[in-house]
Amino acid sequence: MVRILVPGEEAVESENIGHDGTVARTPGGGVSRPIPGLWLGDVPTLPHIASGKVREIYEIDEDRLLFVATDRISAYDVILPQPIPDKGRVLTGVSRFFFDLLDVPNHLLSTDVSSVDGLGDDEIPHLSGRAMIVRRVEVIPVECVVRGYLYGSSWREYRDGGGPTTEHLPDGLRMADKLPEPIFTPATKAVSGHDENITEAQTRQRLGDDLYEDLRQRSIEVYLSASDHAAARGVILADTKFEFGTTADGEVILIDEVLTPDSSRYWPADRWAPGNEIPSYDKQFVREWLDQTGWDRTPPAPDLPADVISGTRDRYIEAYEKITDLSFDDYLDR
Ligand code: Q0Z
Q: Are 169 and 113 contained in the same domain?
């Protein structure tokens, strides 16, 4: 039996560090119910390695991990009490799409979960489409953020007088302006669990000049390819975050999820207006619903009505189809 985590359970460690370093807590007030494929807290037949806000990692063997995207969704850094059906499949679908398209050395080995020894028969349908079998490497402890536009925390930092992510930018930029060229703005996981932006000098100190240059060049190259791809489909890739790892023979490869709506900021190009806030493709709808409830953005978040769940699901699927130019129904059928 697949044990499913629902709010109130403890299977997700109380502190989950997300891709952006934010600390998520499992919201309270629920009971354990078997709803395979929705919340996805557990793959009990494999050893659990790590939890993120919305992802889980399990050990297959010494050389391979099972990287699973759940249907959990966070908004304003809080995990919402209901999952978004198939959100994990959308994210895994986008990652797979870009791993294929980009053709850069990466950790993806397979998405065929039926080939994994030790998984229960009842776990396979639950995992299919949302899991990746990945090469286990040593994680390089720097989040490789690339920004093509000035937005979010980086915009606020710039407006308030500058800092690590804006140290090389010219004066006079507006919120959501396109940058003269994409910038590499690394961050590290702080003890608090939140990401902390670090300067170029600090990053060079941590990585050494050679690895710094290598990661910066790879990150910007991948960002440029993906943003070209997105732009051709009417989508702006405003910024994104990569992680890299080192193999036993010293090869640097791209790991983690890549260019998903959770690790990236995607905007509909026709909604871009510098000087303004730009709605996010996937999360705007649920954020607007949360805003109008008067919720104060501290846990627990309000329960999502069925129409907000299905509307959010529709937007994730629309993002998948827009970005990949593929049908999500076809993805589910594969
Ligand atoms: C990545 C993380 C989490 C999502 C471990 N290929 C790899 N080899 C070794 N380790 C990792 C990977 Cl991807 C690895 N993370 C970060 C944690 C959910 C991503 F809980 N942790």
A: no
Q: Which atom of ligand 1 is nearest to the CA of 136?
A: 8
Residues in the chain: 334
CA of 16, closest atom in ligand 1: 20
Beta-bridge partner residues of 66: 58, 133
Show pLDDT as tens, one digit a residue, over the chain (334 residues): 333 333 323 222 223 333 332 333 333 322 233 334 445 556 768 998 988 889 999 999 999 999 999 999 999 999 999 999 999 999 999 999 999 999 899 999 999 999 999 888 888 988 999 999 999 999 999 999 999 999 999 999 999 999 999 999 999 999 999 999 999 999 998 878 789 999 999 999 999 999 999 999 999 999 999 999 999 999 999 999 999 999 999 999 999 999 999 999 999 999 999 999 999 989 999 999 999 999 999 999 999 999 999 999 999 999 999 999 999 999 999 8
Which residues line the pocket of ligand 1, CB cutoff 6 A?
50-52, 55, 57, 65, 67, 107, 134-137, 139, 245, 255-256
Number of domains in the chain: 2
Close Cβ partners of 74 (under 8 Å, ≥ 6 residues apart): 18, 22, 24, 53, 54, 80
Q: For the whole prediction, is pTM greater than 0.70?
A: yes
Q: State whether 158 and 119 are in the same domain.
A: no
Please give the Cα distance from 72 to 182 (Å, whole number).
Answer: 30
- 50 C-alpha to ligand 1 centroid (Å): 7
Cα distance between residue 254 and residue 124, in whole Å: 26
Q: Domain span at residue 36?
A: 22-139
Whether residues 194 and 267 share a domain: the answer is: yes
CA of 256 to the centre of ligand 1 (A): 6
Return the CATH number at 160. Answer: 3.30.470.20
Ligand 1: which of 91, 133, 256 to mutate, judged by most atoms within 8 Å of the beta carbon? 256
Q: Is 210 left (phi over 0), alpha (psi -120 to 50) or beta?
A: alpha
